[in-house]
Amino acid sequence: MLTQDYVTAASIKSRLARPPGLAVITMTQQRLKFYNRAPPNGLVLFVGTFLTDEGREKKAIYEFEPHKPIRTFFYLCDNKFHTEALSELLELDARFGFIVIVGNGTLFGTLADNTHEVIHEFAVDHPKHDRGGDSALRQDDYMRKIAEHAMEHFITNDKVNVTGFVLAGTADFKTALGHSDMFDLRLSAKILAVVDVSYSGENGFSQAIELTTELLANAESVLENKLIQRCLEEIGQDTGRCCFGIEKSLKALELGAIETLIVWENLDIIRYTMRNAAGEEIIVHSNKQQEDNREKFLDDSIGLEMEQASEPQSLLEWFAEKSEDLNLEFVSDHSQERTQFVKEFGGIAALLRYKVDFAKLASTADKHDEVV
């Protein structure tokens, strides 16, 4: 292929176009000589020439093995590098957890990129004849053991390491786990489905995958709706375990009270860091509609606008930077519940670890200001 292209390039009549074309093909051939075979994940090779600002010609070679297999063969000569084939490699693969529970044992597995893997399996031996009290105690012990293994395998660095869960099994074990206080709340929030299977072990695992194929394709939408529904339930029941709006959500973040921060993926709020006359940094949040209203940028002590201490930053970006220390979930507005979330809650809400009395906090702050 390259040899044929070299012959074609050699026949180019233009003296300006012919040398660069030949040079690029020659460089490509030279680089490929270093490989007896393609690397396990494939090979990406960009070769070209370009003019610098000073008008000098410069050669460019970018060569690497992708971090995961690339399934596309793509060869093209053009006036630019084409990176379209690499786009799918940048997408995060959805990874789902499966817990298959039957009376004599439990299997823990994952499904990612159409590949399923058993990560742990254990068996239990229940006596055939058990007293009522002993039976209930044994079931509690069984549920506790399942819950402990679930935390061990599906929580890493205090965060759930799968997109969502499927609980599968026979009888009522699977349902009991989902409603058990022993099952970590972070995991239960990610339950996508509870399904009946006829088999134990790997056969039950395979059957659970078959039964949930269509559901898993829409997992992101299902989980987003579950988050919004939980938030609405907390507000409806007045538990104090959910707050919404920028001011309260940021206050909860400051207190370390947030279990999950829910943010609309198209939130257009900008975070400004300003400096007042006393040299103090003041954070101001404003969307595009509010930018013309400069009152919030005024320094009340002198009646002038504060100076900008640093470059404005998208609040979404600011949240993303804190995502290592924060369970951050982005949602779209592609359903009735999520549209309601954007319109009524302003596109930001937080599920809290504990009840926070924002009215009391505001009152305390006001009293402090009066004393000062």
TrEMBL record:
Alphabetical list of Gene3D superfamilies matching this protein: 3.30.1330.30, eRF1 domain 1, eRF1 domain 2
Subcellular location: Cytoplasm
Keyword Cytoplasm listed: yes
eRF1/Pelota-like N-terminal domain segment(s): 1-90
SUPFAM superfamilies the record matches: L30e-like (SSF55315), N-terminal domain of eukaryotic peptide chain release factor subunit 1, ERF1 (SSF55481), Translational machinery components (SSF53137)
Entry-linked Pfam families: eRF1_1 (PF03463), eRF1_2 (PF03464), eRF1_3 (PF03465)
Entry GO MF terms: translation release factor activity
Any Gene Ontology CC annotation: cytoplasm
Keyword annotations from UniProtKB, A to Z: Cytoplasm, Protein biosynthesis
Transmembrane segments: none
Name the UniProt record assigns to this protein: Peptide chain release factor eRF/aRF subunit 1
Organismal lineage: Eukaryota, Fungi, Dikarya, Basidiomycota, Agaricomycotina
